[in-house]
Design goal:
5 helices, two-stranded antiparallel sheet, elongated, about 55% helix, mainly alpha, single chain, 2 strands
Length: about 160
Protein backbone atom coordinates (compact mmCIF):
# COMPACT_ATOMS: atom_id res chain seq x y z
CA UNK A 1 0.00 0.00 0.00
CA UNK A 2 1.14 3.47 -0.72
CA UNK A 3 1.45 5.74 2.28
CA UNK A 4 -0.22 8.82 0.87
CA UNK A 5 -3.61 7.58 -0.44
CA UNK A 6 -4.21 4.21 1.23
CA UNK A 7 -4.61 2.33 -2.08
CA UNK A 8 -2.51 -0.66 -3.06
CA UNK A 9 0.42 0.20 -5.25
CA UNK A 10 0.22 -1.08 -8.79
CA UNK A 11 3.45 -2.54 -10.09
CA UNK A 12 4.59 -0.74 -13.22
CA UNK A 13 5.61 -2.60 -16.32
CA UNK A 14 8.97 -0.87 -16.21
CA UNK A 15 9.95 -2.50 -12.89
CA UNK A 16 12.37 -5.40 -13.31
CA UNK A 17 10.89 -8.82 -12.65
CA UNK A 18 7.29 -7.72 -13.18
CA UNK A 19 5.41 -9.30 -16.07
CA UNK A 20 3.70 -6.59 -18.18
CA UNK A 21 0.51 -8.70 -18.33
CA UNK A 22 0.36 -8.86 -14.54
CA UNK A 23 0.73 -5.08 -14.40
CA UNK A 24 -2.35 -4.72 -16.61
CA UNK A 25 -4.57 -6.77 -14.27
CA UNK A 26 -4.90 -4.77 -11.03
CA UNK A 27 -5.64 -6.77 -7.92
CA UNK A 28 -4.24 -10.00 -9.34
CA UNK A 29 -0.83 -11.02 -8.10
CA UNK A 30 -0.49 -14.28 -10.00
CA UNK A 31 -1.34 -14.84 -13.67
CA UNK A 32 -1.89 -18.57 -13.01
CA UNK A 33 -4.53 -17.69 -10.44
CA UNK A 34 -6.28 -15.47 -12.97
CA UNK A 35 -6.19 -18.16 -15.67
CA UNK A 36 -7.59 -20.75 -13.23
CA UNK A 37 -10.45 -18.42 -12.31
CA UNK A 38 -11.19 -17.74 -15.99
CA UNK A 39 -11.19 -21.47 -16.75
CA UNK A 40 -13.58 -22.11 -13.85
CA UNK A 41 -15.97 -19.42 -15.06
CA UNK A 42 -15.82 -20.80 -18.62
CA UNK A 43 -16.65 -24.31 -17.36
CA UNK A 44 -19.60 -23.00 -15.36
CA UNK A 45 -20.94 -21.10 -18.36
CA UNK A 46 -20.57 -24.16 -20.57
CA UNK A 47 -22.65 -26.35 -18.26
CA UNK A 48 -25.26 -23.73 -17.44
CA UNK A 49 -28.57 -24.52 -19.17
CA UNK A 50 -30.12 -21.13 -18.50
CA UNK A 51 -27.37 -19.23 -20.21
CA UNK A 52 -28.70 -15.98 -21.60
CA UNK A 53 -28.04 -14.85 -25.13
CA UNK A 54 -28.46 -11.48 -26.73
CA UNK A 55 -31.57 -11.17 -28.90
CA UNK A 56 -31.12 -11.17 -32.64
CA UNK A 57 -31.47 -7.85 -34.39
CA UNK A 58 -33.98 -7.77 -37.19
CA UNK A 59 -34.65 -5.19 -39.84
CA UNK A 60 -38.02 -3.71 -40.49
CA UNK A 61 -40.70 -3.83 -37.80
CA UNK A 62 -38.30 -4.69 -34.96
CA UNK A 63 -36.46 -1.40 -35.42
CA UNK A 64 -39.64 0.58 -34.61
CA UNK A 65 -40.53 -1.43 -31.48
CA UNK A 66 -40.34 0.50 -28.19
CA UNK A 67 -37.29 -0.32 -26.09
CA UNK A 68 -39.21 -1.21 -22.90
CA UNK A 69 -41.55 -3.69 -24.59
CA UNK A 70 -40.75 -7.38 -24.10
CA UNK A 71 -41.44 -10.13 -26.60
CA UNK A 72 -40.95 -13.90 -26.47
CA UNK A 73 -39.55 -13.92 -22.94
CA UNK A 74 -37.05 -11.15 -23.50
CA UNK A 75 -36.46 -9.10 -20.39
CA UNK A 76 -36.17 -5.36 -20.18
CA UNK A 77 -32.39 -5.85 -20.18
CA UNK A 78 -32.62 -7.44 -23.66
CA UNK A 79 -31.58 -11.03 -22.88
CA UNK A 80 -33.37 -14.34 -23.17
CA UNK A 81 -32.72 -17.90 -22.13
CA UNK A 82 -31.09 -20.45 -24.38
CA UNK A 83 -34.32 -22.46 -24.72
CA UNK A 84 -36.27 -19.38 -25.83
CA UNK A 85 -33.55 -18.52 -28.33
CA UNK A 86 -33.66 -22.05 -29.77
CA UNK A 87 -37.47 -21.92 -30.05
CA UNK A 88 -37.23 -18.59 -31.86
CA UNK A 89 -34.58 -20.00 -34.20
CA UNK A 90 -36.77 -23.05 -34.97
CA UNK A 91 -39.77 -20.80 -35.71
CA UNK A 92 -37.63 -18.71 -38.04
CA UNK A 93 -36.47 -21.86 -39.86
CA UNK A 94 -40.09 -22.92 -40.38
CA UNK A 95 -40.85 -19.51 -41.88
CA UNK A 96 -37.82 -19.78 -44.17
CA UNK A 97 -38.92 -23.19 -45.48
CA UNK A 98 -42.36 -22.16 -46.74
CA UNK A 99 -43.18 -22.78 -50.42
CA UNK A 100 -44.69 -19.32 -50.88
CA UNK A 101 -41.53 -17.63 -49.65
CA UNK A 102 -39.45 -19.80 -51.98
CA UNK A 103 -41.57 -18.83 -55.00
CA UNK A 104 -41.41 -15.12 -54.07
CA UNK A 105 -37.63 -15.34 -53.85
CA UNK A 106 -37.45 -17.13 -57.22
CA UNK A 107 -39.49 -14.37 -58.87
CA UNK A 108 -37.32 -11.72 -57.20
CA UNK A 109 -34.16 -13.38 -58.54
CA UNK A 110 -35.60 -13.73 -62.04
CA UNK A 111 -36.31 -9.98 -62.05
CA UNK A 112 -32.59 -9.38 -61.46
CA UNK A 113 -31.60 -11.37 -64.57
CA UNK A 114 -30.46 -9.38 -67.57
CA UNK A 115 -32.35 -11.08 -70.38
CA UNK A 116 -30.70 -11.11 -73.84
CA UNK A 117 -32.24 -9.26 -76.75
CA UNK A 118 -33.28 -10.91 -80.02
CA UNK A 119 -29.91 -10.36 -81.74
CA UNK A 120 -27.94 -11.68 -78.74
CA UNK A 121 -30.26 -14.68 -78.45
CA UNK A 122 -29.71 -15.63 -82.11
CA UNK A 123 -25.93 -15.21 -81.74
CA UNK A 124 -25.72 -17.32 -78.59
CA UNK A 125 -27.95 -20.04 -80.07
CA UNK A 126 -25.81 -20.22 -83.21
CA UNK A 127 -22.60 -20.50 -81.15
CA UNK A 128 -24.08 -23.32 -79.04
CA UNK A 129 -25.32 -25.28 -82.09
CA UNK A 130 -21.93 -24.99 -83.84
CA UNK A 131 -20.08 -26.07 -80.69
CA UNK A 132 -22.37 -29.09 -80.16
CA UNK A 133 -22.01 -30.11 -83.82
CA UNK A 134 -18.20 -29.89 -83.53
CA UNK A 135 -18.17 -32.02 -80.37
CA UNK A 136 -20.47 -34.64 -81.97
CA UNK A 137 -18.17 -34.83 -85.01
CA UNK A 138 -15.09 -35.15 -82.78
CA UNK A 139 -16.57 -37.97 -80.67
CA UNK A 140 -17.89 -39.76 -83.78
CA UNK A 141 -14.46 -39.50 -85.46
CA UNK A 142 -12.69 -40.89 -82.37
CA UNK A 143 -15.28 -43.70 -82.13
CA UNK A 144 -14.70 -44.72 -85.77
CA UNK A 145 -10.91 -44.50 -85.27
CA UNK A 146 -10.97 -46.69 -82.14
CA UNK A 147 -13.38 -49.18 -83.76
CA UNK A 148 -10.99 -49.64 -86.70
CA UNK A 149 -8.07 -49.98 -84.28
CA UNK A 150 -9.85 -52.71 -82.28
CA UNK A 151 -10.75 -54.58 -85.49
CA UNK A 152 -7.15 -54.35 -86.69
CA UNK A 153 -5.73 -55.69 -83.41
CA UNK A 154 -8.30 -58.40 -82.60
CA UNK A 155 -9.34 -59.21 -86.16
Amino acid sequence: MSDKDGEPTRPDAEQPGVDPLDADAPGVDDAAELEAAEAEIADEAEHDEDKTVAPTRRRGRAATRPANRTEGGATAAGTRSRAEAERARAAELRRKRSIGRFLREVVAELRKVIWPGRKELITYTTVVIIFVAFMVALVAGLDILFAQGVLAVFG
